From TrEMBL:
Name recorded for this polypeptide: Protease HtpX homolog
EC number per UniProt: 3.4.24.-
Species annotation: Candidatus Daviesbacteria bacterium GW2011_GWB1_41_5
Highest classification ranks of the organism: Bacteria, Candidatus Daviesiibacteriota
Sites where the protein binds Zn(2+): 151, 155, 228
Residues in Peptidase M48 domain copies: 86-304
Family matches, as Gene3D superfamilies: Metalloproteases ('zincins'), catalytic domain
Pfam families: Peptidase_M48
Family: Belongs to the peptidase M48B family.
GO terms of molecular function: metalloendopeptidase activity; zinc ion binding
Encoding gene, per UniProt annotation: htpX
Predominant localisation class: membrane
Amino acid sequence: MATVNTAWDHVSGNIFKTYLIMFFFSLFTIGVIYVIAQGFGYGETGGLGIVGFALIMAGIMNFASYYWSDKIVLGISGAKELKHDQNKEIYHLVENLCIAAGLPTPKIYIIEDTAPNAFATGRDPKHSAIALTSGIIQKLSKQELEGVIAHELSHVGNRDTLLMSVVSILVGTIALLADFFMRSMFFGGHNDRESRGNQFMVIIAIVAAILAPIVAILIQLAISRKREFLADASSVLLTRYPGGLASALQKISADREPLEAANRGTAHLYIVNPLKGKDAKQWLAGLFNTHPPIEARLKALREMEGLK
């Protein structure tokens, strides 16, 4: 019982931190769009109109991402669907965990690569999929695989794919507007902009256009790291055995073979960064990591076991 209570503490804590970050990220996005609109010379009403238009466009892009991102990711990764008779043990392992989690059984995919790793995708629990490399099936024990699969199912249950799609679109919206503004300043009537708008706001908009995309990416990565902690804790609630996931994380991170199917665009989806050798240790460099340090994840899992 103590293990479950501790795991719930980690789950609730990470959910709160994610929502808090998302709240400030939303305010940040609206503020950046408004400042850039002012830099273009729009007034108060026009600035709010630009904010509304940008958010509507972001919503449309979210809609497209919501429906097709899973197919794109699976295609890029070279994943092939696993049928029941091809590997009954894996199929039943996923089914049993889904019953415990109250989730529909997702489609299961295999990536033919000896590097051990896994990810989950899909717009909602009814349209979800988990992908396992052939290497993770070969190199991990049943208890370790159970921890990994429970982690990925937790991403499905927590709607992490949808959340990260929304975050990615917001980051992209900021980057596009910032780039468009800077291009317009250099190539599209700089003097006309100055005559129409407040010169001080133009300067503020330039600073925002330079810094905002970097800040947005840092926030995106911070949210990604929090969702990994949340999935770890949720996995423990399913398996009641933190040691299985902890051992799996150690084995996956210790395996130095890079995953050939992964790239920087899909790396954040995997349970451990598949671009081996890219994890930064320094605090400042660590802000740009898609995953929390393995040491921090193992420490949290040990706390769930009641170990110090």
